[in-house]
Design a protein that fits this description.
heterodimer, A: mainly alpha, MetI-like fold, 2 domains, 68% helix, B: alpha/beta, four-stranded antiparallel beta sheet, 12 strands, 36% helix, binds adenosine-5'-diphosphate, binds magnesium ion
Chain lengths: 330, 257
């Protein structure tokens, strides 16, 4: 389909006026009449969609506008953001610990980590959330003390496991299992020679990990972690089932009062879109920063890429293979 | 501990296997203080493995390997061998510098940071003192002006010289070189060998795995030819290289010279 000349134009993105010695030639890019047909069809469909959205009264845009920045919604948004941040902090820290344990020469540590990852990745996060929320049914009393010995403090599980704590534990412990796999892939990506060089200098395993391996693993860890953050922002909506007032639950509080279900779902979706868009922008910034010190050229920002993809009628060259093998599908 | 009469490295019947593959089949040799000890041999003969045993990157399976009068990786007590703790092994490695075929510089650190990392974090030297010493070492290898550069922006020869400076920063009593010039373009080999030659002149004890026979002949005090996990032949480099006694040595040398 593509001639070599065509591919050349695609990969550089510009029509090359070949600086041929002695002659000045102008290269004319290959023309693509079918693209104009495709553009026409897509624009037609888009126009129809927009027209329905605007004119169909069932969307009730006035309701969306009315509650968009209401206090209930903003508090819910705050809860969603707070939960996302805390869950990811817990997930990342525990995930690093699990990954390092998994790669430890100690079979007990490595086995325990493997078991953890197997369990938390093998059961639905929704179920885990519900179990944490109902922990009191399993262990009515939680005591602090010497195992099988005297107890120093006895706590009522019902009081301890609030919906917020249950959400934090349920989502955070689950996320840690995924983060562990991401961190492990990152550690594996660092050349064995780095560890050897560090050990030959007298560095111990923990110092080697902290100063030499993990900083280099970051380049591989960060992109899928960004995806995890964005995905977690949406996954936090599961906490509605344990009545924690996040963005989704807050919009449902309103719609259960006013019976305007669709506009409030649209409202919540718009907020989710706004935040994920901002997070995506931050992610591409960070990715660019971490690819520095690396001989490969800095990849263009997502938005630059997106803009280019929108304004030029060809797909970008496949310069960047997807980095993660572990992120994604759950 | 630094008894001038005992050898720096003493190997007696050192054995090592990976699974069922026996890689070292009883290596016996002695490296004196201040000596440059060259090891040559075909690929896969166990040269790297032996070098890595010396600083306990690999565990010896049988035989005795003694560095500066102390058993590598074990403590002998009442006729029994006790494996050393990680901390103790690390402390011994501090005193043995190692230079790798593929340099293994830390790519996320500048040249200077590469050199001061271990002195600060491992030896506990203050940053100012470590930096001062690092700059001296970089001057010695001719790279003081590159201290702020990152390894990826240096040539192979420059990277290897930084790697030598990094190893020297821990003030080792013994330096191990594993084919330090094999990954270099031919025109960059000389600058690395020059640095090694200077180091030898200053009296550093060096064990060098190399294919640079010119260097071995000129700088080496002893040379062993290894093949298939055994020392086939050893002696003064000039003697072994010009008048090899064994058929295997002859056929190897005819290929590399
Ligand atoms: N970690 C290892 N696991 C298994 N086999 C190894 C390992 N390291 C080295 N070997 C094998 O041991 C043999 C000797 O390797 P090496 O010491 O690197 O040889 P040389 O440095 O002389 O080329 C080779 O056959 C190699 O494949
Ligand atoms: Mg080797």
């Amino acid at each position: 389909m593509k001639s070599p000349a065509d591919r050349h134009v695609l990969s550089t993105g510009t029509a090359v006026a070949a600086p041929h010695p002695g002659a000045s030639l102008t290269a004319v890019p290959v023309r693509h009449p079918w693209r104009w047909v495709a553009i026409f069809v897509v624009l037609m469909l888009a126009a129809m969609l927009v027209s329905t959205i605007v004119t169909n009264p069932n969307f009730e845009w006035d309701v969306v506008g009315k509650y968009f920045t209401s206090e209930t919604i903003l508090q819910g948004l705050w809860m969603t953001l707070l939960l996302t941040v805390l869950v990811m902090v817990l997930g990342i820290l525990l995930g690093i610990l699990l990954a390092v344990m998994r790669l430890s020469p100690n079979p007990v540590l490595s086995g325990a980590s493997g078991l953890y990852i197997w369990f938390f990745r093998g059961t639905p996060v929704l179920v885990q959330l519900l179990v944490w929320f109902n922990l009191a049914a399993l262990f009515p009393r939680i005591s602090v003390g010497i195992p099988f010995g005297p107890e120093f403090m006895v706590l009522d599980a019902n009081a301890l496991i609030t919906p917020f704590v249950a959400a934090l534990l349920g989502l955070g412990l689950n996320e840690a299992a995924y983060m562990a796999e991401i961190v492990r892939a990152g550690i594996h990506s660092v050349d064995e020679g780095q560890t050897e060089a560090a050990q030959a200098l007298g560095m111990r395993r923990s110092l080697t990990m902290r100063r030499i391996v993990l900083p280099q693993a970051m380049r591989v860890i960060i992109p899928p972690t960004g995806n995890e953050v964005i995905s977690m922002l949406k996954t936090t909506s599961l906490v509605s089932v344990i009545s924690l007032a996040d963005l989704l639950y807050s919009s449902q509080i309103i719609s259960s009062r006013t019976f305007q279900i669709i506009p409030l779902l649209i409202l919540a979706s718009i907020w989710y879109l706004i935040v994920t868009t901002i997070l995506t922008m931050i992610q591409s910034r960070i990715e660019r920063r971490y690819s520095r010190g690396n001989r490969r050229a800095d990849p263009d920002s997502l938005w630059l890429r997106l803009w280019r993809n929108l304004t030029r009628f060809h797909t970008a060259p496949p310069s960047q293979a997807p980095l993660s093998e572990t992120g994604g599908i759950r | 501990m630094t008894d001038a009469t005992i050898p720096m490295v003493k190997a007696e019947e050192v054995r090592k296997h990976f699974g069922r593959l026996e890689v070292l089949k009883g290596i016996t040799l002695e490296v004196g203080r201040g000596e440059v000890f060259c090891i040559v041999g075909p690929s896969g003969s166990g040269k790297s493995t032996f070098l890595r045993c010396i600083n306990h990157l690999e565990k010896v399976d049988a035989g005795r390997l003694v560095v500066d009068g102390e058993l590598v990786g074990y403590r002998e007590d009442g006729g029994k061998l006790y494996e050393l703790k990680e901390r103790e092994v690390a402390a011994k490695r501090e005193q043995i510098g190692m230079v790798f075929q593929r340099f293994n510089l830390f790519p996320h650190m500048s040249v200077l940071e590469n050199v001061i990392e271990a002195p600060i974090r491992v030896a506990g030297i203050a940053k100012a003192a470590a930096t001062e010493r690092a700059v001296q070492l970089l001057e010695r290898v001719g790279l003081a002006d590159k201290r702020a550069a990152y390894p990826n922006h240096l040539s192979g020869g420059q990277q290897q010289r930084v790697a030598i400076a990094r190893a020297l920063a821990m003030a080792p009593k013994l330096m191990l070189f594993d084919e330090p010039t094999s990954a270099l373009d031919p025109e960059l080999v000389g600058e690395v060998l020059d640095v090694m030659r200077n180091l030898a002149d200053e009296g550093m004890t060096m064990v060098v795995v190399t294919h640079e026979m010119g260097f071995a002949r000129e700088v080496g005090d002893q040379l062993v030819f290894m093949d298939a996990g055994v020392v086939v032949e050893s002696g003064r480099p000039r003697d072994v290289l010009t008048a090899p006694q064994h058929e295997r040595t002859k056929s190897f040398l005819s290929k590399v010279l």
